[in-house]
Amino acid sequence: MKTKEIIFKLRTQHGLSQDELAEKVFVTRQAVSRWENGETVPNIETLKRLSQLFQISINALLDSPQQLVCQCCGMPIEDSNVSKEINGVPNQEYCHWCYADGEFTLDFWKQYIRVGGKEKFEEFKQQLILEFNEILHIEGLPKIENLNVLPGSFVNLEYRLPNGILVKFLDDKATYLGNQLECEFGGERCFGIVANMDFLLVCTYGENGEDPELVFYKKR
User: Fold this and answer.
1) Which end of the chain is more exposed for a tag (fewer CB within 10 A), N or C?
2) Would you give the end-to-end CA distance of the chain in angstroms?
């Protein structure tokens, strides 16, 4: 679907005339008419206003095939989970779980942004990646190339000890750096890696985190 068709569809779905849409995004009715005739496309500022008005990403307005990925957790960004600034304007760099109303929601990320900025945060991630790859030589575990910011509730799996007791080692309310990696030998089990300032952890698990097994744990 072309941009002209997308704008027409959104306008009519919201019950707006060309005059009414023009008033809401601060352009003339003639400008809206030219968009819908395919003669022109909105400029970037107007695209932002349309994005806010219709609660849809700019990529979707332009029918762009580009896949957006959250710069915080690494998850794909869709219109349903795109973050928003405090004024409601969508921010396509982050998902709404990591960033909302102009603020980062995860404590780990916020701490590093506050202390040293994004550059320092990236340096810390690279240091952890280096430590994982230098220390770990686990059969079937691929080389680690990236870590995402993840809520503790996502990665705090419950392990069964030899005595049969089930335990969790992490904090649901904390935030960690981690990733999921497919085993180099194939199969249905994956490797999960998790780290923070204090430790490195590697585990394996089946589909949806079932039957997890702790492989490696080391304090930093």
Assistant:
1) N
2) 52
CATH number of 1-66: 1.10.260.40
- Of 21-30, 31-40, 89-98, 181-190, the range with the lowest mean pLDDT is 89-98
Q: Domain map of the chain by residue range?
A: 1-66, 116-219
Residues 38, 191: Cα–Cα separation, whole Å: 49
What does the alpha-carbon distance between residue 158 and residue 169 come to, in Å, rounded to a whole number?
A: 8
CA–CA gap between residue 200 and residue 218 (Å, rounded): 5
Total residue count of the chain as it appears in this document:
220
**CA 137 to chain CA centroid, nearest Å:** 29
The set of residues, in sequence order, having a beta carbon less than 8 Å from that of 78 and lying 6+ positions away, is none
- Asked if 170 and 152 count as a contact pair (C-beta separation under 8 A), the reply is yes
Is 18 within 8 Å of 10 (Cβ atoms)?
no
The values of phi and psi at residue 100, to 5°, are -150, 135
Between CA 189 and CA 77, with CA 73 as vertex, the angle to 5 degrees is 100
pLDDT per residue over 19-45, tens digit each? Answer: 999 999 999 999 999 999 999 989 878
Write the DSSP string, 77-136: E-TTTEEE-TTS-EEEEEETTTEETTEE--HHHHHHHHHTHHHHHHHHHHHHHHHHHHH-
Q: What's the predicted TM-score (pTM) here?
A: 0.54
The upper half-sphere exposure of residue 12, i.e. CA atoms within 13 Å in the direction of its Cβ, equals 7
